[in-house]
């Protein structure tokens, strides 16, 4: 499961890198420095949400042996959602 979570994390990182390039382009075109910091803040908030959500999920298993698998699946599902969201900003 850890390998699958790492794979999804790598995909998110790839899309984040591409979205960050787009954010840099926006800042260059507009002469503002708002898109990059906004995307950075968004990613930081998303990571905090993912970790908190999956930690909450873990508590619902009350120590069951399947807890680690459920947490891994949670991180994978949320990571796949994040990758799809970031993909919208790739040009």
Helix-strand layout with pairing:
Layout (H helix, E strand, L loop, with lengths): L1 H29 L4 H26 L6 H21 L4
Helix pairs in contact: 1-2, 1-3, 2-3
CATH topology: Substrate Binding Domain Of Dnak, Chain:A, Domain 2
Major sheet size, sense and barrel closure: none
Q: What are the segments in which pLDDT stays under 50 over at least 5 consecutive residues?
A: none
Number of discrete domains = 1
Helicity range of the residues? over 70%
Instruction: Name the helix and strand elements from N-terminus to C-terminus, one letter apiece.
Output: HHH
**Structural shape:** elongated
Count of DSSP strands: 0
Distance between the termini: 32 Å
* Percent of residues in beta strands: under 5%
Would you state the CATH class?
Answer: Mainly Alpha
CATH architecture classification: Up-down Bundle
Number of helices: 3
Structural class from helices and strands?
A: mainly alpha
* CA-atom Rg in angstroms: 16 Å
Mean pLDDT over all positions? 96
Protein name: Lysozyme inhibitor LprI-like N-terminal domain-containing protein
InterPro entries: LprI-like_N
Organism: Roseovarius indicus
Structure description:
This protein has three helices and no strands. It is mainly α and 91 residues long. The protein has a single domain (2-87), classed as Substrate Binding Domain Of Dnak, Chain:A, Domain 2 (Up-down Bundle), CATH 1.20.1270. Helix 1 (2-30) runs parallel beside helix 3 (67-87). It is elongated. The termini are far apart. The mean pLDDT is 96. InterPro entries: LprI-like_N. Residues 3-86 form the Lysozyme inhibitor LprI-like N-terminal domain. It comes from Roseovarius indicus. Pfam families: LprI.
């Amino acid at each position: 499961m850890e390998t699958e979570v790492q794979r999804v994390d790598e995909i998110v990182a790839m899309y984040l890198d591409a979205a960050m390039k787009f954010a840099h382009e926006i800042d260059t075109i507009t002469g503002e420095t708002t898109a990059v910091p906004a995307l950075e803040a968004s990613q930081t908030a998303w990571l905090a949400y993912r970790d908190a959500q999956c930690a909450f999920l873990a508590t619902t298993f009350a120590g069951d042996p399947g807890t680690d698998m459920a947490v891994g699946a949670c991180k994978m599902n949320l990571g796949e959602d994040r990758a799809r969201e970031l993909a919208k900003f790739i040009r």
